[in-house]
Specification:
Number of strands: 10
Distance between the termini: 18 Å
Strand content: 15-25%
Number of helices: 8
Strand order of the largest sheet: 1-10-9-6-2-3-5
Shape: globular
Number of domains: 1
CATH architecture: 3-Layer(aba) Sandwich
Structural class: alpha/beta
Largest sheet: 7 strands, parallel
CATH topology: Rossmann fold
Oligomer: single chain
Order of helices and strands: EHEHEEHEHEHEEHEHHE
Helix content: 25-40%
CATH class: Alpha Beta
């Protein structure tokens, strides 16, 4: 795990954009299908709005997926799909694609099957997974102290799981741990001095985020604005 600290979010974004551009340029030259999973927090959305500044990437080869999603209609302004799409903007999405996780809002079981089918490409190795983390030690929708999280952490194959958040909107879909780790590079985008405590706890306790921060199977970098 590599930790890079920056004096403010603008400097962080400048450096993170450069890293993403280099990685995507390398990947798009060697593959016709470059897969990137995106999380949806304020820091991440601010970063995605600047993706249009990355001018030397063939976005037509890039497929975006969601790290997790809320159990509401895709057209709702509260969904990760809506907010990430808005942040990426038309310039990027005229070429790149973004795949939702909600298909049947009335039938949870059917939706899970459809979501797994449409997102099956993202269960394979990704180029980049962009994550954030909560002060309770969650990342994606892997929340502490739920049975669903325990299952998602222990499953031996990449998959998409259901989970329950401790705050509204409670019903969630999320990539499990095995899927998140199935990436060439995992990047955490975090901000604020308060994250120091959760990073220290993650090295001492088995929080959901601990499994990713301490993995040896993927390259993990933390971009942290203080």
């Amino acid at each position: 795990m590599i930790v890079k600290k920056f004096e403010n979010s603008t400097v962080l974004e400048d450096n993170l954009l450069s890293l993403i551009e280099v990685n995507l340029r390398i990947e798009t030259k060697s593959s016709n299908e470059v897969k990137v999973l995106l999380s949806c927090g304020a820091s991440s959305l601010s970063l995605y709005k600047r993706f249009k500044e990355i001018s030397k990437v063939d976005w037509s080869n890039v497929k975006f997926g969601l790290v997790d999603e809320k159990w509401i209609d895709n057209q709702s302004k509260e969904t990760n799909f809506y907010n990430i799409s808005e942040a990426l903007g038309e310039i990027i999405l005229q070429k790149a694609s973004i795949t939702p996780m909600i298909y049947d809002i009335k039938d949870e079981k059917n939706n899970l099957s459809l979501s797994k089918l449409s997102n099956s490409v993202f269960l394979k190795e990704k180029s980049i997974v962009l994550l954030e983390m909560g002060l309770d030690g969650h990342t994606a929708s892997l929340f502490p102290n739920t049975v669903q999280t325990e299952n998602a952490l222990s499953e031996i194959y990449p998959d998409i799981s259901l989970n329950i958040a401790p705050f509204p909107i409670k019903k969630r879909l999320t990539h499990n741990l095995k899927s998140l780790l199935n990436s060439k590079k995992i990047i955490f985008n975090i901000s604020g001095k308060e994250n120091e405590d959760i990073l220290n706890r993650a090295n001492k306790e088995l929080l959901p985020v601990s499994y990713i921060l301490n993995t040896l199977s993927s390259e993990v970098e933390i971009f942290w604005s203080l």
